[in-house]
Amino acid sequence: MMDDQALLRYSRQIMLPEVDIEGQERLRNAHALIVGAGGLGSPVALYLAAAGVGKITIADADTVELSNLQRQIAHQQANIGTNKARSAKASMQALNPECHVIALEQYADGKALEALVASADVVLDCTDRFSSRYAINAAAQQAGVPLVSGAAIRFSGQLAVFDPRNPACPCYACLYPPGDSEDEALSCAESGVMAPLVGLIGCFQAIEAFKLLSGAGKPHQGLATFEGLSGQWRHFQVPRDPACSVCGHTD
Fold it and tell me: Would you tell me which of 10, 27, 175, 195 could form a disulfide with 71, CB atoms 3.0–4.6 Å apart?
């Protein structure tokens, strides 16, 4: 049970009837896996730690560079040259020492990725590579763990929640079939990105993870896109592809 300090720390969430003490306890007992500690992973990590998620694993093999600091708010000037997962862990625990953070300073793939995903209650894809997104999606589908996927480039961002527990919900490969997207794989280093955009999409990812873990509300459905220059959101319904190579089922 939460002590008086925890009740005070999370009081603004506990007073929400959709959360209450039961929802806060669910957050406290949950495990979130964040893959990527960059522009998207930074707000995700900080907000989930602040919100009281009890265990967070954050994975990233890259080190902090000066050009990251324009948008990757979990890192500071003094962290240049430090592994991003380790840097993010320090920021998360400075914000909330009660949060148990595991920093994986390497790329996770294959069986290691499958085991990591299977150990989590929710997975947040904060990467910027299609190969990573496909691998994380496949592992989440195999383990039956909900996946919150975000992306941001230039002035445009998008978010989708893929929940294998819902038979009508598509997966990432339904939205972007393997082989169709490789030529479109752009990175912020190549194309640029507006600093607050990754914060917006990352916060959106954190909201969805919060709902999935606490039981508040209902998960986002379909694909949401945001155009920063116009300030417009658009929403698209995405059906499950019965011929999908990852989640499709044949009778």
Answer: 195
